[in-house]
Amino acid sequence: MGKSKISVIIAREFSVRVKKKSFILTTVLVPLFFAACMIVPGLIATMSSGEEGLKVAVVDDSGIVVPYMESNKEVIFEHVTDKSIDELKNEFESLGVYAVAHVSQLDSNNNLSVSIFADKQVNIDVMSKIERFAEKAVEQKKLDMYNIPNLKDIIDDLYSGVKVNSYKLSQGEESVSKVEIYMIIGYIASFMIYMFVLLFGNMVMRSVIEEKTTRIIEVLVSSVKPFQILMGKIIGVASVALVQFLIWIVITVAAVSVVSSMMGPQVMAEAGAQQMQMSGLDVSQVPQVSADNEFGGYLEALKGVNYFGIIGAFIVYFILGYLLYSSMFAAIGAAVDNEADTQQLSMPVTMPLIIGLFIMLHTFQYPDSAISFWGSIIPFTSPMVMMARIAYGVPAWELALSIGLLFATFVGMTYLSAKIYRVGILMYGKKPGWKDLFKWLKY
């Protein structure tokens, strides 16, 4: 009989939330937002271009920079020799140029400075281009002073970039490994657990407060035990969360797959090159690696990821982490009369989540450190920290110990929360403190 009452409450909680317009909107829009965050930066970097035809008048008192200034469709450099920089500044409005650049004379150390004048803030692309050209000119000037044949080629040869590859060994077989992939997987999984536990835990708390303030709870407890109501609410909201999460995964993967197939495998390589150029880096000095080879390396590394293990661990830690924290949020909701009174009581509950998030960031750099180990074992932080570690590989006994402790803590915390819930849902007019909650545990 008890089980059937819990199932009725679960069904009610599920149906009420699934039918809400906010659920439908977030279910559709959130995965599209995730997909856009992954796709739009690449599209912007590869398909968009800056303003075209920006004319920059240059007065080169050094005599060495202008030969290095190469115009393109975005920026056109015009060397001015018949006017001084002061004359150009005074006549700026009638010149029809975007900016005026003045290259100073070389000082005793063969250094120079560049000043740019315009009627508005000059964009970073123009500034980085001028800076890069000036640096090349000064560098070549200083190299020529040594009078060593092919000195530039010798220096370039010394900085021949080294490519580091990593491989995972398993039963005598090796596979390509990319640490960036494991960091991304760990970060996404950990942050999603943090976000969803906080989101749906607060949803449970608000639901309890709403039923308490509308006195619906008084009708429910006349036929259903408080513990059954508590478990029905927690599991009902959890089922909504899992359904929504699975829909998010399907829509996000489908959207990214469709757009990626249209963009082609070279998009990220081209985007990276454009980002480097915008940052003022000399792409020609970067060791040339085929985009296909680099993309193929990441594909090979992705094939070696244990997706079933990571997804399975994510589901387990998400469910147990949610059950642990939602039981505490439900107890807080039962103890107060309105949401404004939850701040004092909810802070100690949310602090472990925040601490787990900070330890998770540390874990990416040191996955096997003592703080990372204990953060992945202690139940209140393990859902976030273990998901950051598991992508790097975790011994089975550590995983079993972590899950076992998390489950045992959930059971114990649910028992304690149920005692607070049983007393708090029928208590009105008093703002309880921690002392009152401990007193209720003894009833």
Please describe what this structure looks like.
- This protein has a 4-stranded mixed sheet. It has a two-stranded antiparallel ribbon with strand order 5-6.
- The chain has 2 domains: 2-43 and 178-441, no CATH class; 54-158, Periplasmic binding protein-like II (D-Maltodextrin-Binding Protein, domain 2).
- The protein has 17 helices and 6 strands.
- The chain has helices at residues 2-18, 21-47, 85-90, 92-95, 124-145, 151-158, 179-213, 216-220, 226-263, 267-278, 291-303, 307-335, 343-365, 370-377, 382-390, 396-424, 434-441; strands at 54-60, 75-79, 99-103, 114-117, 166-170, 173-177.
- The protein is of the alpha/beta class and 443 residues long.
- Helix 14 (370-377) packs across helix 15.
Topology:
Blueprint lengths: L1 H17 L2 H27 L6 E7 L14 E5 L5 H6 L1 H4 L3 E5 L10 E4 L6 H22 L5 H8 L7 E5 L2 E5 L1 H35 L2 H5 L5 H38 L3 H12 L12 H13 L3 H29 L7 H23 L4 H8 L4 H9 L5 H29 L9 H8 L2
Parallel strand pairs: 1-2, 1-3
Antiparallel strand pairs: 3-4, 5-6
Task: Write a concise keyword list for the protein shown above.
443 residues; alpha/beta; D-Maltodextrin-Binding Protein, domain 2; four-stranded mixed sheet; two-stranded antiparallel ribbon; 17 helices; 66% helix
Tell me the overall shape.
elongated
Distance between the termini: 26 Å
Mean pLDDT: 77
Q: How many strands, what sense, and barrel or not for the largest sheet? A: 4 strands, mixed
Spans of at least 5 consecutive residues whose pLDDT stays below 50 are 271-292
- Rg calculated over all Cα atoms: 31 Å
Helix count, DSSP H or I runs of 4 or more residues: 17
Q: What's the arrangement of strands in the largest beta sheet?
A: 2-1-3-4
Domain module tally: 2
Helix content: 55-70%
SSE order in H/E notation?
HHEEHHEEHHEEHHHHHHHHHHH
Structural class: alpha/beta
Number of strands: 6
